[in-house]
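B., you asked whether I could sanity-check this one before it goes into the benchmark set. Here's the sequence:
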Amino acid sequence: MSGLDLGLRAQAEAIASGQLDPAELLDACLERIEQRNPELNAVVETFPERSREMLAQAPRGPLYGVPVLIKDEWPLPWRAQRFGSAQMLSTPEPGESGPYLALRDAGAVIVGVGNMHELGMSSTGAISVYEPARNPWDIERCPGGSSSGPASAVASGLVAGAVGADGLGSIRYPGAYCGLTGLKPTFGRAAIAGHEIYNTETIVSGPLCRDAGDARLLASVLFGEEIPAGEAQPSRIGVVRDPLWEDCAAEVRERCEQGLDALVAETGSSVVELELPELGLWLTAALMVAQAEEAARLTPERVNSLRKEVSPIARGLMKLRAAIPATLPARSLLVRAQARRRLAAIFEQVDMLAWPTVPAVAPPLASPLVELPSSGVVSADVANGRHGTIANLTGIPGMSLPVGLSEGLPVGLQLLGSWQSDAALLDAAEALERATEREFVELRPAARA
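And here's what the prediction gave me:
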């Protein structure tokens, strides 16, 4: 078995023990990218000499010598980010972003840049200036967005871990679509310096990995502190049946219910039924807050100067953003304050929340639509938004865990916790892996064979 087929922790341990040569692992990684990536389009650029320089200078940190992919949302000293777009509202420049510094100081080797949905504007990954990344479970399906390339790369075995970014679900959606463990940390905990939207109140960096232990290691690097592992305690797990469970594809709901039942049995937890009538308002507020974060750049001159190479959808959304009255984001911040108070009260009743990460499996790239019981065929973005945006609006941590297949495609269960409860979520994820004998984290698409 190739060292590339080991998980992130196993690679780090094998290198530290001398069983695996990091230079040979890097060469094998670059070779595998060259072989497998043309079909997947997960990696948009490699830079072998820069990667070898990182390895030569790497400190003996927790990820010493381990190849890692980074999303096209983060600048590197030798490469400016492009956000998967032909043009941005600003002129990006190379630089030492927070995720880059965290990886460098941990001894990791950045082996390439991962594709992403154009300007981070979708949960599907269906549009990119590089052409879209593809889901290794079915290359005609969406890999999820906007961290599409990182998810596709890890799911296809190009790398064992990747750094994404989550502004409105953009780590958890691709995690669910590609059968990975993806963590959206508590806002402010993970490295984010150098991000294009410098004043963001929603975006975080975070890991996409094969399992919770690997995600814990990579998240610890991004946090700059070790996330301690512990035994998952008996918890009160809150569920919102209507609409977050009931308005899902039947088999997705079934797989998530089986995953939740396994977690409850393994940890001696209990399920508490909750209602969130505010859900629709929170979704709207999350969208408004996120859209307002680039307001300073949304001048008529800049928006109207976007080239035709930028997709019509992105150009239209930019113009829509520019037309949003300033009163709407201001009111949305009031809604956010109410949402935080409401969640604080809820987390006195329960320890975490659980519902499907997305209500349907990955849709076709050519037509990213899904079918829901309540409304029939709708845009995947419309369907996914209500499941993922609460975490970004309020800053709580959330993660997607693989819990099986539907139509041969992965299904993800989402756990969300109170602020700073990232470690407890990871503990719960590891408990679920034990309860299912790691069946779902070990599932591999054909592209990884």
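One thing to flag: Residues 155 and 178 are 6 Å apart (CA to CA). Otherwise nothing jumped out at me.
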